[in-house]
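Exercise 7. Given the encoded structure of a 299-residue chain, write a plausible sequence.
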């Protein structure tokens, strides 16, 4: 992949004036997702920040067809849309199911796993902001150890973040990729690629959230980049079982200059009560995962 801004589709599908928060990582990611997938796309949305961003007809802020569905059934609803399009002989329309981590890791895992096992022909994307942000920052399976939420009675979450990417990889998908709105060209090109592939494609979006993570709205891009620089998140794609690091993660792996996780943690108030033991455990976990993926990659 090569960074070239002139390759990006210049049409806007996400209109100004939507209801997302200032500095919303989801709105940035969604803008480039829709540019990559283009007009012939239908989106399935569960209750989430994305549902709020879209708004309701006739004042929706996105100019593509979308269906609001149940929290647990986003992948099932998307599967139904795929079946309907097949019956109508409309193979050129891309179906995108886009859920937050709550609607992916937790409430939506059953319908997603079922669809992936059947290799349903759609893209499922998780925008991972690491909590139930739309309803007030409640803990999810994606919330990292040491973070404060409104439903962690012992002040910080004590359990590690669920490794959902590994769960999806176990479904033997034709394509799986991780992206970040802080690196829009990498995101754009991976969604363009996913659009051309058949079967279940899983896309994982590291999605910074100013009110939920506790940082200034102007720093969203900076926080997203620090997630990559520290190895908290890794940019890669897995196609036909082969893993390849991409973008900044590939560069860091080749140069061997990954930053300590404290550079990422110290900039977010959600980690203000994280203990030194938890910080050490997080660093160890990040290092182990980084070494595993670098070892698998074709550098």
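Solution.
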């Amino acid at each position: 992949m090569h960074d070239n801004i002139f390759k990006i589709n210049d049409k806007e599908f996400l209109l100004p004036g939507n209801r997302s928060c200032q500095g919303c990582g989801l709105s940035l990611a969604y803008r480039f997702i829709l540019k990559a997938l283009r007009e012939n796309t239908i989106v399935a949305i569960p209750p989430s920040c994305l549902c709020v961003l879209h708004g309701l007809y006739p004042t929706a802020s996105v100019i593509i067809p979308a269906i609001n569905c149940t929290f647990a059934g986003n992948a099932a609803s998307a599967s139904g849309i795929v079946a309907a399009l097949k019956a109508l002989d409309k193979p050129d329309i891309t179906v995108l199911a886009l859920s937050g981590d709550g609607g992916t890791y937790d409430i939506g895992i059953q319908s997603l796993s079922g669809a992936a096992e059947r290799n349903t022909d759609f893209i499922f994307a998780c925008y991972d902001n690491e909590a139930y942000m739309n309803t007030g920052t409640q803990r999810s399976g994606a919330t990292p150890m040491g973070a404060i939420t409104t439903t962690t009675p012992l002040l910080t979450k004590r359990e590690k973040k669920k490794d959902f990417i590994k769960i999806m990889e176990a479904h033997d998908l034709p394509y799986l990729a991780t992206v970040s709105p802080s690196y829009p060209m990498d995101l754009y090109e991976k969604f363009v690629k996913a659009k051309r592939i058949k079967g279940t494609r899983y896309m994982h979006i590291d999605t910074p959230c100013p009110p939920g993570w506790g940082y200034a709205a102007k720093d969203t891009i900076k926080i997203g980049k620090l997630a990559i620089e520290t190895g908290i998140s890794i940019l890669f794609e897995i196609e036909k079982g082969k893993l390849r690091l991409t973008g900044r993660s590939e560069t860091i792996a080749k140069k061997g200059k990954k930053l300590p996780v404290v550079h990422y943690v110290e900039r977010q108030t959600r980690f203000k009560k994280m203990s030194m033991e938890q910080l050490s455990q997080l660093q160890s976990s990040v290092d182990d995962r980084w070494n595993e993926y670098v070892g698998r990659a074709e550098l």
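Remark. The chain is about 40% helix and 15% strand. Students should compare their own answers with the one above.
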